[in-house]
Design brief:
alpha/beta, Spore Coat Polysaccharide Biosynthesis Protein SpsA, Chain A, 2 domains, five-stranded mixed β-sheet, four-stranded mixed β-sheet, 9 helices, 9 strands, globular
C-alpha cells in the first residue's frame, strides 16, 4: 500500500545555518510525509545544529561526525535509517511540497525501482530561476548511465536495500557522486524518470560539501577510469574518445594543468580509432 511506504530522508550538512531551516521545512511540509528526517552534520563550526533544534520537529534526527565529506555523511544516514526507502536532499536545497507524493506511486512496481525527477535551477546571486528539464531515461539504463551524468541526489528515491546491495556510496569520488551512484544502482534496478521539476537546486556563495567546478574535472576523470572497461564494452574506443575529449574541454575551461594529460589520452585513443579504420578499409580493399 502506498500509505505504508516508510521513507527516510537523508540530508548531509556542513555549515548551513543560513539555509538548513528552509531545507527542512520543505521536507516537514511534504504532502506525503516522510517517516523520518536524518540530518548528518559533517563537522559544522557554525550554528547549524542549533538552527535544526529550534525547529523542534519530532521526526528530525541529528547525527554528528567529524568532517569527512558528503558521501560519508550520506552513508552514515543510510546505515542509521529506519525506513525502507531513502530520499536525499542537500542542506542548501529545497523540495517542492508535492515531491514525495509525485514519486511514491511508482514504487508500487517493486523494490528494485529508482525514481528520479528534474529540478528548478536557482541562481540567487543573479536572481534567476529556470526549469532544468532533462531527457531522462527509463527502464534498464545502465548503458546510458555510463556515458551521461545521472540524476541528482536531491531527486532520487530508492529502496534502502538497493543502496546496501551496492555496498553504499563510494566515498572516494571527488565529485559527480550522484553519477557514480546512478551507474551502480542501474546495474540491478529499473529507473523511472519524472519529467517535472520537483526540487530547487540553489546556487549561491558560501561553503559547500560537493559543489566545486575544479573538483568536477577530477570527479569526471575518476568515473571514466573506474568504468572505462565497461565503456569500452558497450561503446568501443569511440566511447572512451568521447569521454577524454569532454575532459579535455572541461580542463581547458577550468584552466587545469590536467589539460595536457587528457590531451595525450584523447590523442592516443583518436589515433587508435584512425588506425583501426585504416586497417578495416585496407582489409576491405584486399577482399575486393
Amino acid at each position: 500500500m502506498i500509505d505504508n511506504i516508510k521513507i527516510s530522508v537523508v540530508i548531509p550538512s556542513y555549515n548551513r545555518e543560513k539555509t538548513i531551516k528552509k531545507c527542512l521545512e520543505s521536507v516537514i511540509n511534504q504532502t506525503y510525509p516522510p517517516y523520518e528526517i536524518i540530518v548528518v552534520d559533517d563537522g559544522s563550526s557554525d550554528n547549524t545544529i542549533q538552527k535544526i533544534k529550534e525547529l523542534n520537529y519530532s521526526k528530525v534526527r541529528i547525527l554528528q561526525q567529524n568532517h569527512k565529506g558528503a558521501q560519508s555523511a550520506r552513508n552514515y544516514g543510510i546505515k542509521e535509517a529506519k525506513g525502507d526507502y531513502i530520499a536525499f536532499l542537500d542542506s542548501d536545497d529545497e523540495w517542492l511540497l508535492n515531491k514525495l507524493e509525485k514519486q511514491v506511486p511508482y514504487l508500487e512496481a517493486g523494490k528494485n525501482i529508482v525514481v528520479y525527477c528534474d529540478c528548478y535551477e536557482v541562481n540567487r546571486r543573479k536572481g534567476q530561476v529556470r526549469a532544468k528539464i532533462t531527457k531522462g531515461s527509463n527502464g534498464n539504463v545502465y548503458k546510458e548511465m555510463l556515458m551521461n551524468t545521472g540524476p541528482m541526489f536531491q531527486g532520487i528515491l530508492c529502496s534502502r536495500k538497493s543502496l546496501l546491495d551496492i555496498g553504499l556510496l563510494d566515498e572516494n569520488v571527488p565529485s559527480h557522486q550522484e553519477w557514480d551512484t546512478a551507474i551502480r544502482l542501474s546495474r540491478n534496478n529499473k529507473f523511472v524518470h519524472i519529467s517535472e521539476p520537483l526540487f530547487k537546486w540553489n546556487w549561491h556563495n558560501g561553503e559547500t560539501i560537493s559543489k566545486d567546478t575544479v573538483r568536477g574535472v577530477k570527479g569526471h576523470a575518476y568515473i571514466v577510469e573506474k568504468y572505462k572497461l565497461e565503456i569500452l564494452k558497450y561503446y568501443g574506443l569511440q566511447g572512451i574518445d568521447r569521454q577524454y575529449e569532454s575532459l579535455l574541454i572541461e580542463s581547458f575551461q577550468n584552466e587545469r594543468i590536467e589539460i595536457m594529460k587528457y590531451f595525450f589520452k584523447w590523442a592516443i585513443i583518436d589515433t587508435l580509432i584512425d588506425i583501426r579504420k585504416f586497417l578495416g578499409r585496407k582489409t576491405f580493399e584486399e577482399k575486393f
